[in-house]
Specification:
It is a single chain. By secondary structure, the protein is mostly helical. The chain has one domain: Arc Repressor Mutant, subunit A, CATH 1.10.10. It is built from seven helices and two strands; from the N terminus they run H-H-H-E-E-H-H-H-H. A two-stranded antiparallel ribbon has the order 1-2. A hairpin with a 5-residue loop joins strand 1 and strand 2 (76-79). Helix 2 crosses helix 3 (51-63). InterPro entries: TR_Rrf2-type_CS (IPR030489), Tscrpt_reg_Rrf2 (IPR000944), WH-like_DNA-bd_sf (IPR036388), WH_DNA-bd_sf (IPR036390).
Amino acid sequence: MRNPQIPMDNAVMRISARADYAVRAAAELAASDQDGPVRAEALATAQSIPYRFLEGILSDLRRDGIVVSQRGAGGGYRLARPATQVTIADVIRAVDGPLVFVRGTRPSDLEYQGAAAPLLRVWVALRANVRMVLEEVTLADLVTDGLPEQVRLLVQSEEAWENA
């Protein structure tokens, strides 16, 4: 049983504020795709994201080819490709790098000996499952609330909603 004294930010799997904000901003861009470029200020307001923080996120998303920017009076940001082709994993990798790290190292670069040797397979399995969800869900899925069946099935269990 988990110690109730330990704050949740000490959990093994964390989604950074940067990644959360990036996905939310990208979803907002996907939702307004037909309306043309969206100003950073409008994205920040729509998703309650600190503007200065969002500027850095948008820069990372632009550098990774997720968004493009347009200068001028009608300028702003838009997705660089259709929302159906941008996954949550793409967005998270753009701002945070690889999806799963163990002590700052990719699981496939680790080595364990003795009784802990099978632990490497556990970390790799964790990474595979994280990828299974995040690489399957696109920004279009978020905007249309059309999450893939496997994701909908995962969240149907009451246990999925419990902090354990």
